[in-house]
Design brief:
- The structure is a single chain.
- The chain is α+β, with helices and mostly antiparallel strands.
- The protein has one domain: Alpha-Beta Plaits, CATH 3.30.70.1290.
- About 45% of the residues lie in helices and about 15% in strands.
- It has nine helices and four strands.
- A four-stranded antiparallel beta sheet has the order 2-3-1-4, with helices on both faces.
- Strand 2 (about 45-55) and strand 3 form a beta hairpin.
- The radius of gyration is 17 Å and the shape is globular.
- The chain starts with 10 loop residues before the first strand and ends with a helix.
- About 35% of the residues are buried.
């Protein structure tokens, strides 16, 4: 099987979609198992994780690999480990679980910060919670309140934002509260679906992009 190459030191937005596990994350124990496996696999495969969000059948990650095959090996390992856990726990004898991946190369710190916002506000934007901090399975609380994490690596775009705002975490929370334009969210989701690199940050996105009130939700489901 051909292995996908990733550019070392470049940031990628990755979406994983469950295709064979029924309900991908059946309960809190499933979420917790996957998150711990992700945590313990980052150093092994030399990948930095900047932001994440787990939904019932989708996973969104913002990552920077240090080697050409590190990200591919990380995703393959997580898929294999979770498949073994899921099939053993639920006594399945069918084909192993599979999470289909799509990834987009992210150009520039500003766009990476927008993608981090895209990830951390997903649960609220999809109507799953009233506040992004209420969704336990995301990096929101770590990045918005500087909760200590030994395995999240702040992205340069996030660091620069805090430095420009005098290290104000409240400014970052305000930035997340300021919703991205619906057309821009649709644009990011579309590029991710196609595996194409987005070419704009929210500051210079063409106003002509077609808006869609539930564009992101329609893409996900």
């Amino acid at each position: 099987m051909k292995q996908e190459l990733y550019l070392p030191g470049k940031t990628y937005l990755v979406c994983l979609k469950n295709t064979r596990c029924g309900e991908g994350f059946y309960d809190a124990a499933c979420y917790d198992y996957y998150l711990k496996r992700l945590h313990h696999s980052l150093n092994q495969f030399q990948v930095n994780l900047h932001a994440y969000c787990f939904l019932a059948n989708e996973i969104y990650l913002l990552l920077t690999p240090s080697t050409p095959f590190g990200l591919t090996h990380l995703l393959d390992s997580l898929n294999s480990q979770y498949a073994g856990y899921y099939n053993l726990r639920f006594e399945r004898q069918t084909r192993k679980c599979h999470w289909r991946s799509a990834s987009s190369l992210i150009h520039g710190d500003g766009l990476a910060l927008d993608c981090q916002k895209f990830i951390e506000t997903l649960p609220k934007n999809l109507g799953l919670v009233n506040h992004p901090g209420a969704h336990h399975w995301s990096s929101y609380c770590s990045n918005a309140f500087c909760m200590k994490s030994t395995w999240l690596t702040p992205h340069n775009g996030y660091r620069a934002f805090l430095q420009n705002k005098a290290h104000s975490l409240s400014a970052y929370r305000d930035y997340l509260d300021d919703q991205l334009a619906v057309g821009y969210v649709s644009y990011l989701a579309h590029k991710l679906q196609l595996g194409m690199p987005p070419g704009h940050s929210s500051k210079n996105l063409p106003a002509s992009l077609e808006p869609g009130r539930r564009a992101l939700s329609n893409y996900l489901h």
